[in-house]
């Protein structure tokens, strides 16, 4: 398909002083690893600029609250949690953490007409998937939202059997979520950023042709044979079966990849979560049944996966230095076409027309060199 150069600038740049991008609310985001939520310990996280406090009740259910007492604003994480209630350190207000309902205000007397139960601290729907605490973040002004409301499906790494291994990786990125996401879907940076003996290098750059198709809230790189210049894919050749991979991107921030080799499979869910206007975090959760009985396979996978993600992180840190100066930026040729689709899909969702608008008229074939 012919290359095209769009007008400048194509997408928001990232000065550090002002918000650089619009955020997508009314969806699920991973806050932190749920394994840290144990006993009566509280943990904090920030999603879309919102400070949150998370914990696990005595019955095992996890919760997420806005880390601010509605009385005088002190962080609730400074207070106490007994497994049932979160108590504010300042005046002892006690809250049921899943609903946020106030259950006690110690300063009230029997003659005071105020009913504490009519007061709510901010609370968010919160569920565990793949070892993450996923939090539903409603849009500003929406009011209280609970798990009983009609909410989107909570994301999860695809799995194709009961026996599998899994691992996770995470890295903070000093850029807005748009830069993080288009870096995630960029197919041309691999030979330059991920230089290693076990990955493709500049000497192996060649033309590639991939087929894409629209899916709800995103797009798919249709099932295809993976690149022959990547060592991890070559390892699957020991099974003697054809190898295929499928990659989906789904708003607001999710990349799903599934690799199949007969009955063997590897899948991953990668998310880029905005923590603030100009910062985001990448999380990867992978599951697989390949080499299931090989000792230390999880440790080996995490070693190489960590190195891979750190290379992306280092590049984004370097890019942030240039973005401080608010340069004009461009998207070009077929390698950047998925980024254009992302921005169009995002804008449609922000304007409330995503159900009827898709930037792809149908299946598309893209060509690039990497």
Automatic annotation (TrEMBL):
<feature type="domain" description="Rieske">
    <location>
        <begin position="28"/>
        <end position="135"/>
    </location>
</feature>
<keyword id="KW-0411">Iron-sulfur</keyword>
<keyword id="KW-1133">Transmembrane helix</keyword>
<protein>
    <submittedName>
        <fullName>Oxidase-related protein</fullName>
    </submittedName>
</protein>
<keyword id="KW-0408">Iron</keyword>
<dbReference type="InterPro" id="IPR050584">
    <property type="entry name" value="Cholesterol_7-desaturase"/>
</dbReference>
<dbReference type="InterPro" id="IPR017941">
    <property type="entry name" value="Rieske_2Fe-2S"/>
</dbReference>
<dbReference type="GO" id="GO:0046872">
    <property type="term" value="F:metal ion binding"/>
</dbReference>
<keyword id="KW-0812">Transmembrane</keyword>
<dbReference type="GO" id="GO:0005737">
    <property type="term" value="C:cytoplasm"/>
</dbReference>
<dbReference type="Pfam" id="PF00355">
    <property type="entry name" value="Rieske"/>
</dbReference>
<keyword id="KW-0479">Metal-binding</keyword>
<keyword id="KW-0560">Oxidoreductase</keyword>
<keyword id="KW-0472">Membrane</keyword>
<dbReference type="InterPro" id="IPR036922">
    <property type="entry name" value="Rieske_2Fe-2S_sf"/>
</dbReference>
<dbReference type="GO" id="GO:0016020">
    <property type="term" value="C:membrane"/>
</dbReference>
<dbReference type="GO" id="GO:0051537">
    <property type="term" value="F:2 iron, 2 sulfur cluster binding"/>
</dbReference>
<keyword id="KW-0001">2Fe-2S</keyword>
<dbReference type="GO" id="GO:0016491">
    <property type="term" value="F:oxidoreductase activity"/>
</dbReference>
């Amino acid at each position: 398909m012919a290359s095209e150069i769009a007008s400048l600038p194509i997408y928001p740049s990232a000065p550090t002083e002002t918000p650089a991008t619009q955020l997508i609310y009314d969806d699920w985001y991973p806050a932190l690893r749920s394994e840290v939520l144990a006993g009566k310990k509280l943990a904090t996280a920030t999603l879309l600029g919102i400070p949150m406090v998370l914990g696990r009740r005595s019955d095992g259910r996890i919760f997420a609250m806005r880390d601010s007492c509605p009385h005088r604003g002190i962080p609730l994480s400074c207070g106490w949690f007994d497994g049932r209630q979160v108590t504010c350190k300042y005046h002892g207000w006690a809250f049921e953490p899943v609903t946020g309902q106030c259950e006690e205000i110690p300063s009230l007397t029997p003659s005071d007409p105020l009913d504490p139960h009519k007061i709510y601290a901010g609370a968010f729907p919160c569920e565990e998937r793949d070892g993450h605490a996923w939090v539903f973040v409603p849009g500003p002004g929406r009011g209280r939202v609970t798990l009983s409301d009609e909410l989107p499906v909570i994301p999860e790494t695809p799995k194709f059997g009961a026996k599998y291994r899994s691992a996770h990786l995470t890295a903070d990125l000093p850029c807005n979520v748009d830069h993080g996401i288009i870096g995630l879907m960029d197919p041309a940076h691999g030979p330059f950023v991920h230089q290693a003996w076990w990955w493709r290098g500049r000497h192996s750059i060649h033309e590639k042709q991939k087929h894409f198709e629209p899916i709800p809230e995103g797009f798919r790189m249709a099932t295809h044979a993976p690149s022959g210049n990547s060592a991890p894919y070559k390892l699957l050749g020991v099974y003697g079966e054809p190898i295929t991979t499928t990659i989906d991107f789904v708003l607001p921030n999710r990349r799903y990849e599934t690799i199949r080799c007969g009955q063997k499979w590897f899948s991953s869910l990668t998310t880029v979560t905005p923590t603030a206007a100009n910062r985001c975090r990448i999380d990867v959760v992978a599951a697989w049944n390949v080499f299931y009985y090989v000792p230390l396979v999880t440790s080996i996978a995490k070693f190489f996966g960590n190195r891979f993600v750190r290379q992306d992180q280092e590049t984004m840190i370097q890019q942030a230095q240039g973005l401080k100066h608010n340069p004009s930026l461009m998207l070009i040729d077929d390698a950047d076409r998925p980024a254009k689709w992302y921005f169009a899909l995002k804008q449609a969702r922000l304007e409330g027309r995503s159900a009827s608008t898709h930037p792809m008229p149908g299946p598309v074939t893209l060509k690039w060199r990497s």
